[in-house]
Amino acid sequence: MKPNQLLKKLKNAYQVCVDCGLEHGEMRTKYSTWWHETCDVCGLHKQVTEARDFYYLNKGIKELRSKI
Question: How open is the CA angle 48-64-5, to the nearest 5 degrees?
Answer without folding.
Answer: 65
